[in-house]
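Hi support team,

I've been running sequence recovery on a batch of backbones for a student project. Most finish fine, but this one hangs at about 90% for roughly twenty minutes before it completes. I'm not sure whether the input is malformed or the queue is just slow. I've pasted the structure tokens below so you can try to reproduce it. Let me know if you need the job ID as well.

Thanks,
M.K.
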């Protein structure tokens, strides 16, 4: 099985470290407001900051956050186990397209993956269309934290797994072919079930 997979918020606990940086930044600029938009994608935006403010923040701190974000529990072991059984992992990320523009996203991401023990068969950065790239690479399944990506791929007949995150927790009605996973243990169970169903169809 060819498995496509996002990176930030999907295999990383990006938000945990992002929050630390945001709180430190808010203290430095003397901002003591409260969260007003709790479901925004960017932590800084949850405090009411504009997209422009958010991009400036990530231009300054995005690389540090990306290089030091912890991985989600057991995802390294699970990815290793799946690859050992013959599955391939293609990581597709927008890094370098809308943020980390002043850095080489391939070098930065490969360095983080090597440090974190994440194995992969292919890495694609600066993607213009994650959905089209996934289709082009013949993925059998895609894992992401974006409900929009999951919806568009599901519409193209590709099963998806939505990894739970703060910005998608309010999504109750998932598209057909999409399954929510709270952690990577659940991701593994869903993948193994899909593989079993696929094998049964070929018998």
């Amino acid at each position: 099985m060819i498995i496509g997979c996002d990176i930030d918020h999907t295999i990383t606990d990006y938000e945990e470290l992002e929050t630390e940086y945001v709180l430190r930044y808010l203290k430095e600029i003397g901002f003591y407001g409260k969260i007003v938009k709790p479901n925004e994608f960017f932590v800084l935006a949850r405090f009411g900051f504009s997209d422009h403010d958010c991009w400036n923040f990530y231009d300054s701190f995005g690389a540090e956050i990306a290089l030091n974000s912890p991985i989600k529990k057991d995802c390294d072991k699970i990815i290793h186990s799946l690859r050992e059984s013959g599955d391939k992992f293609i990581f597709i990320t927008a890094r370098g397209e809308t943020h980390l523009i002043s850095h080489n996203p391939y070098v930065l991401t490969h360095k983080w993956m090597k440090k974190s023990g994440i194995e992969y068969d292919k890495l694609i950065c600066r993607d213009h269309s994650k959905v089209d790239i996934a289709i082009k690479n013949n993925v059998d399944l895609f894992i992401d934290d974006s409900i929009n990506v999951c919806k568009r791929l599901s519409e193209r007949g590709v099963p998806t797994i939505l990894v739970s995150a703060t910005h998608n927790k309010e999504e109750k009605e998932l598209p057909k072919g999409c399954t929510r996973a709270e952690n990577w243990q659940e991701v593994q169970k869903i993948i193994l079930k899909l593989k079993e169903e696929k094998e049964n169809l070929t018998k």
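--
Follow-up from support: It reproduced on our side and the slowdown came from queue contention, not your input. Strands lie at 2-5, 88-92, 122-124, 141-144, 160-163, 178-181. No action needed from you.
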